[in-house]
Amino acid sequence: MRALLQRVSRAAVNVAGVDVGRIDHGLLVLLGLDKHDNRDVADRMIDKLLAYRLFADAEGRLNRNVADVAGGVLLVSQFTLSADTRKGLRPSFSSAMPPARARELYDYTLDALHRRYSPVESGQFGADMQVALINDGPVTFLLEVHGD
């Protein structure tokens, strides 16, 4: 499982002209699901992204997590994060989770995130989404969690 975390001043997801998710200061999380991911991997990813320190403390060091700064989390499914780009000039999606299983695991991840933290907003799985953001810093990290 891959999560691209972006520290944002604000972010929004629009589907067919309608905002479906919006946050102010916080984290935009683009989530890629690989075919071997499962609920355990999702739970560990949630632990990691909620604890990850990418907000500055009083000395300007990245020592604070999203809860420390009372930030929002905007979770967006991002199929292309599962691409294998090691060879050639065209991405391979052979390692990506099939859509039906991916929807189920994304929904589980979103529900688990809602149970653990607030505020949480989301995109719409499988939709053609327009994502607007102001990356604060810019600060962007790629987190990866794999099954044991």
UniProtKB/TrEMBL annotation:
Domain of life: Bacteria
EC number: 3.1.1.96, 3.1.1.-
Entry keyword annotation includes Cytoplasm: yes
Entry keyword set: Cytoplasm, Hydrolase, RNA-binding, tRNA-binding
Motif annotated as Gly-cisPro motif, important for rejection of L-amino acids, chain positions: 137-138
Subcellular location: Cytoplasm
Keyword tRNA-binding: yes
Substrates-to-products reaction catalysed: a D-aminoacyl-tRNA + H2O = a tRNA + a D-alpha-amino acid + H(+); glycyl-tRNA(Ala) + H2O = tRNA(Ala) + glycine + H(+)
InterPro entries documented for this protein: Daa-tRNA_deacyls_DTD (IPR003732), DTD-like_sf (IPR023509)
Pfam families referenced in this protein's UniProt entry, alphabetically: Tyr_Deacylase
MF term (GO), any: D-aminoacyl-tRNA deacylase activity
Domain notes: A Gly-cisPro motif from one monomer fits into the active site of the other monomer to allow specific chiral rejection of L-amino acids.
Subunit description: Homodimer.
Function per UniProt: An aminoacyl-tRNA editing enzyme that deacylates mischarged D-aminoacyl-tRNAs. Also deacylates mischarged glycyl-tRNA(Ala), protecting cells against glycine mischarging by AlaRS. Acts via tRNA-based rather than protein-based catalysis; rejects L-amino acids rather than detecting D-amino acids in the active site. By recycling D-aminoacyl-tRNA to D-amino acids and free tRNA molecules, this enzyme counteracts the toxicity associated with the formation of D-aminoacyl-tRNA entities in vivo and helps enforce protein L-homochirality.
Family, similarity comment: Belongs to the DTD family.
Name of the protein: D-aminoacyl-tRNA deacylase
Organism from which the protein derives: Candidatus Marimicrobium litorale
Organism lineage string: Bacteria, Pseudomonadati, Pseudomonadota, Gammaproteobacteria, Cellvibrionales
